[in-house]
Specification:
By secondary structure, the protein is mainly alpha-helical. It folds into two domains: 166 residues, Orthogonal Bundle (Cytochrome Bc1 Complex, Chain D, domain 2), CATH 1.10.760; 114 residues, Cytochrome c-like domain (Cytochrome Bc1 Complex, Chain D, domain 2), CATH 1.10.760. Helices cover 35% and strands 3% of the residues. The strands form two sheets. A two-stranded antiparallel ribbon has the order 1-2. A two-stranded antiparallel ribbon has the order 3-4. Strand 3 and strand 4 form a beta hairpin. It is globular, with a radius of gyration of 20 Å. The site of one heme C has 24 residues, from helix 6. Pfam families: Cytochrom_C (PF00034), SoxA-TsdA_cyt-c (PF21342).
């Protein structure tokens, strides 16, 4: 036990001294050897073009799984063997409009972006690995078997949303991933959960509940009308949404429901503060076992990864300047 504590203390010292996230190093790790400056248009394919065959059936089942995840693989489904997700969220709870809304970590073009380097595991991961990343973290559950119909269906749907995009060439596709809030502000300013609570009460609680509990739909395994933001039935501490910068990026362009990148409701500062509020330690959230092993390389470690005992409070709420090179 003493040894463990010593090791933890030592790595804490390392983090707070010279190491910082270096975008250049991440770029080197992520290089696939392909360069393209092609201007790509963000296009949502028309469902009437889904073919009437086995492929089309799987595309449709994949979409259904993204939209109604809790109904097929949620913790309340009839067959215990199918209970892969540990909460009643849907993939669509975060990947809005069945994964087609720009800047909500959209699936448009995504099939052309994998395999890719992931700093969290310091390894090359496939699209299936990435889906299972969200299964274990955002969905607080377990991996879908690679040969399951569900894994194949999700990938087939993502393939269908990506047809026509060049393999390896979607990095510059506007609308993919999330739209970052002001990266200058976050370097010098900490997020303020006290101010975030005020934003929450004014802009979020009407749907997500006074205690972040959301509003469940009637019936078993039927998910939420408004998903919970904290508590037992939501994303765990290994999830991207637990990180203040990721959550702020998502919230700014997507919440309150109806907000877009072009027509946001909150300022960057409000999004930053409310992201810190929902993810506060005093708001219970399931932990993720082995989270301690995430981001083994310090110079590609995201600045906003917060693990008590290893990371400092500043990794939780900023200011993030000293963790970014
Ligand atoms: C609680 C929110 C949340 C839920 C629920 C969720 N995800 Fe995610 N997902 C994220 C975030 C945040 C990211 C990272 C976005 C980024 O870094 O740009 C992400 C990333 C991904 C990516 C990689 C995207 C990319 O552009 O590289 C895939 C694929 C994915 N999720 C699939 C799924 C699937 C499938 C489900 C349901 C089984 C799911 N997610 C559920 C929040 C969520
Ligand atoms: C009008 C209702 C409404 C309001 C107001 C609203 N949301 Fe949401 N929010 C939703 C819905 C609905 C979803 C899930 C989308 C889906 O399932 O299609 C969601 C999803 C989310 C998610 C990802 C899913 C999860 O459970 O973590 C986060 C984070 C979130 N909202 C944060 C906020 C914040 C912060 C505010 C206030 C700034 C806010 N929302 C205001 C309706 C709302």
């Amino acid at each position: 036990m003493k040894k463990i504590i010593a090791a933890v203390t030592l790595s804490a010292l390392c983090v707070s001294s010279s190491f910082a996230f270096d975008a250049k190093v991440l770029k080197e790790h992520s290089d696939t050897g392909y360069k393209s400056d092609a201007k790509l248009e963000y296009k949502i394919p028309d469902e009437k073009n889904i073919p009437n065959n086995e492929f089309g059936e799987l595309v449709k089942y994949g979409k259904e799984l993204i939209v109604h995840t809790s109904k097929y693989i949620g913790p309340e489904v009839e067959d215990p063997k199918m209970r892969y997700a540990g909460n009643n969220l849907n993939c669509q709870s975060c990947h809005l409009d069945a994964g087609t809304k720009p800047y909500s970590s959209s699936y448009i073009g995504i099939f052309a972006a994998f395999p890719q380097y992931g700093a969290r595991g310091n390894s090359i991961g496939t699209l299936a690995d990435r889906i299972n990343g969200c299964m274990e973290r955002s969905m607080n559950g377990k991996k879908l078997p690679l040969d399951s119909k569900e894994m194949k269906a999700m990938q087939t749907y993502m393939y269908w949303l990506s047809q026509g995009y060049p393999v390896g060439g979607v990095d510059k596709l506007e609308g993919r991933s999330l739209s970052p809030i002001d990266r200058k502000m976050i370097k010098t300013q900490a997020a303020d959960p006290v101010k975030g609570k005020v934003v929450y009460e004014q802009q979020c609680a009407s749907c997500h509940g006074a205690n972040g509990e959301g509003i469940k739909n009637d019936g078993r395994a039927n998910g939420y009308m408004y998903p919970p933001l904290w508590g037992k039935d939501t994303y765990n501490k290994g999830a991207g949404m637990y990180r203040v910068l990721k959550a702020a990026d998502f919230i700014k362009s997507n919440m309150p429901l109806g907000a877009t990148k072009e027509t946001p409701v909150l300022t960057d500062e409000e999004a930053y503060n409310v992201a810190a509020f929902i993810n506060m330690d005093s708001n219970f959230r399931p932990d993720k076992a082995d989270r301690i092993n995430d981001f083994p390389l310090e110079d590609v470690k995201a600045p906003d990864v917060y693990r008590p005992n290893i990371e400092t409070k500043e990794n939780q709420v900023g200011p993030f300047g000293k963790f970014i090179k």
